Amino acid sequence: MKLTQTHIEELYKFTKKHYVEYYDVQTELVDHLANDIETICLANPKLSFDDARDTSFKKFGIFGFMDVVEQKQSQMTKKYFKIILNFAKEWFKLPKIILTALLFIGFYQLQNTPNAYTIYSTVFGFIFLAQVILTIINARKLKKEFKITKRKWLFKNIINVQGLIYAAFISIYSFQYLFPNNTKDFLLMGDFRKAFSAFFITFLVIFGYITLVVIPKKAEELLEETYPEYKLI
Questions:
Q1: What is the 8-class DSSP label of residue 18?
Q2: Which residues are listed as membrane-spanning (predicted)?
């Protein structure tokens, strides 16, 4: 059996019915199902399309497409943080390394002032709040876009929503567990811990800049690199 466009459309509906909401994941599954159905029908020509489809679907086990979705989610999340890492590496090359060094020295020297804890807290709070606000704004934009295109893209969702949630969680976790929680203990830190604190807050400032400014600006470019078909929309 050679599958028709109608069959392909039915497979898209089938994956959506089984809780696969992202178009890119649906496309991968439809491609797999289509090839498998043709193979199954080649071995048993009398089998109907629906029966061949159900036979193929059973191969995914009792959890259906869930494992595939989770694997794709993990893969795209790793891709997102790899992109962040690649952008972060640029801050350790000229000329940005000069600004990085100045940030580190500034935060290190700042720890000797009475207001150091307040300033550190403000920086963390600003990054965290900005990530939360941008997450809400982007989530609303994606919702409006879905109403028009009827398509959701997993990597686009990670760039605009999930990635920012992860970033916000990392920021607040770092502040709560890696730094003293009061002004007195902050001022009493030893030289090594001061250097570590200065390094880490410098990293988080760069991390926040990349997630809040750099990646959103390059989002369309990154999406087109990930999905060649995205250019056609």
A1: T
A2: 91-111, 117-137, 158-175, 195-215
d(CA 191, CA 205) in angstroms, rounded, equals 21
Domain that includes residue 25, residue range: 5-64
Burial class (CB in 10 A: 0-12, 13-18, 19+), 210: buried
How confident is the chain (233 residues) per 10-residue block, as mean pLDDT? 89 94 93 94 89 93 89 92 92 92 92 84 88 92 91 92 87 77 76 86 90 89 84 58
Cα gap 209→92, rounded to integer Å: 15
| Residue 83 near residue 215 (C-beta atoms within 8 A) | yes
Tokens representing residue 34 in the block:
């289509």
Distance of alpha carbon 121 from the chain centroid: 26
* CA 75/CA 121 separation, integer angstroms: 33
Identify the pLDDT of residue 46. Answer: 85
Euclidean distance between CA atoms 115 and 187, whole angstroms: 9
pLDDT at residue number 191: 84
Q: Which two tokens stand for residue 148?
A: 């028009």
The structure's pTM equals: 0.82
| 170 and 88 in a common domain | yes
- For the chain, what is the domain count? 2
Q: Which residues contact 189 (CB under 8 A, 6 or more apart)?
A: 111, 180, 197
Give the residue carrying structure tokens 């020295």.
105
The Cα–Cα gap between 29 and 49 comes to 16
